[in-house]
Amino acid sequence: MTLLPPRPLGVDDARLAALAAFNILDPPPERGFDDIVHLARRLCDVPALVSLVDRDRQWFKARAGFPPCETDLDRSVCKFVLAEHGVLQIPDLTADLRTLANPLVTDEPHLRFYAGAPLRTPEGHVLGSLCVIDRVPRPGGLTLAQVEDLEALARQVMDQLVLRRAIAERDTAIAEQRRFLAQRATLIETQGAVAAAEGDLDAVLSTLVSGALRAVTAADGAAIELREGDDLVYRSVAGTLAGHAGTRLPVDGSLAGTCLRSGEAILCPDMLLDPRVRSEEVAALGLRFCILLPVSKGHEVAGVLKLQSATPGAFTERDLYAALTFAGSVSAGLAQTGEAEARRVAAESERLLGLERGLLRTILQQAPVGISIAHAGGGALLNDRMVEMLGHGVGGADDARYAG
Prior knowledge:
- By secondary structure, the protein is of the alpha+beta class.
- The chain has three domains: 13-167, Beta-Lactamase; 197-341, GAF domain (Beta-Lactamase, 2-Layer Sandwich); 367-403, no CATH class.
- The chain is 41% helix and 21% strand.
- The protein has nine helices and 14 strands.
- The protein has helices spanning 13-21, 31-44, 103-106, 144-196, 201-215, 255-262, 279-285, 317-366, 384-390, and strands at 48-53, 57-64, 70-72, 88-90, 113-120, 126-134, 221-228, 231-239, 248-250, 266-268, 289-297, 300-309, 372-374, 380-382.
- The strands form three sheets. It has a six-stranded antiparallel beta sheet. Strands 9-8-7-12-11-10 form a six-stranded antiparallel beta sheet, sandwiched between helices. A two-stranded antiparallel sheet has the order 13-14.
- β2 (57-64) and β3 form a beta hairpin.
- α4 (144-196) runs antiparallel to α5 (201-215) and α5 (201-215) packs antiparallel against α8.
- The chain is rod-shaped, with a radius of gyration of 40 Å.
- Mean pLDDT is 83; it is low at 396-404.
- It holds the Pfam family GAF_2.
- This is GAF domain-containing protein.
C-alpha cells in the first residue's frame, strides 16, 4: 500500500464560524443524533461517531461504542475528512503517514480502521464527519452498500443540524419580537405616566428612568444626568445607580460630557478600558458597558440618558434602538415640563395682575375725590366720584363707569 503524506490543514475561519453558528458544541445528548450513530454501528458492525472538528479539538455529538466525548486535534482522524469530497477510508491506520503516529493508534484503543463521511453544510463547509472505526484493519474497506449508507446517514445528520439551527433561529426571532413588543408597551405606559405627571420634573424624570431600565432588560442601572453649570448631575437614577442620586461629574473630562457637547450617542463596550474616561470614577459607579444618549430641552442639549451594565458586551442593537426611543421620550418630557412651567408662570402672572386690578378698583371706588386716568390708546378710566362730578362718562352718560 502506498503511504500518503499528511497534508497540512490550515485554520479555516469561515468553516469555524459556520460551526459556531450551529451552536451545537457541548450540549447534552439528543436522541435524533444518537439514533443515527446506533444505526451506523449496526450497518457496519463497528463503533460509530458524529464528530465535529473545532479549532483545537474534536467533539463527539453522538457516539456508540467509543467512550471519550472529545479529543484534541492531535488524536483526530476526522480532521482529514475536512478536505475530502466523499467518504474517506483508511484501511489500516498504522500504514498511513497521516495516522500512524496518532496516540489512538499507537496506544489504547489501538484503532486500525477508519471511514468517515463529511458533514457538509448547504453552504459547502465541512463541520466534521459521521465515522466508523475498528480495532482491526479492513484491507477491502467498507462495501459499496455500506459507503452509500454512511453517506445517507451523514446527510441525515446535516438535515438534523440544519433543522435544529432553523428552530433555534425561529425561537430567537420570536423572542426578539416579544421583547420588541414588551419594549413598545413599556414606552407607551411610560409616556402615559409622564403625561399624568403634569409637568412635575422629578416625577417625569423618575418615570422615564425606571421605564428605560425596564425596556432595556440587559441594563442593570440607569440615570438621567442634567447639566448644571460645569457639571452633569445625576437627577434621576434607578437600578444599580440608585444610590448615586445627586452625583456630580464634570462636563469636561467625562464621557457623558463628551456626549453632551457632541450631541451624539456613545456606545462604550468597556469603560474601564476606555482612555476617554477616568477609571477611578467609573469603577466607583460600577460602570462597564454603557450607552450614553443626549437629551434635549428645546433646541439645546440639556443632559444625558445613561444605561449601564456590569457585563461588558451586554447590549444588543435592539437595546440601542430602545434606548434611543427613550432618549427621545426624555427630551419630550423635558419639553413638557418646560411648557408646564411656562403655563404656571403665565397663570401666576395672571393671578397677580388680577390682584393688582382688584386693588386698583378698590382704591378708585373708595377715593373721596374724582379720578380720571387717560389711556395711551384713547379713552379714560373714571371712578364713580368723577362721573358724579361730570354728570356723565367720557363718551356720555352711558359710559359713566370705569373698567376694572
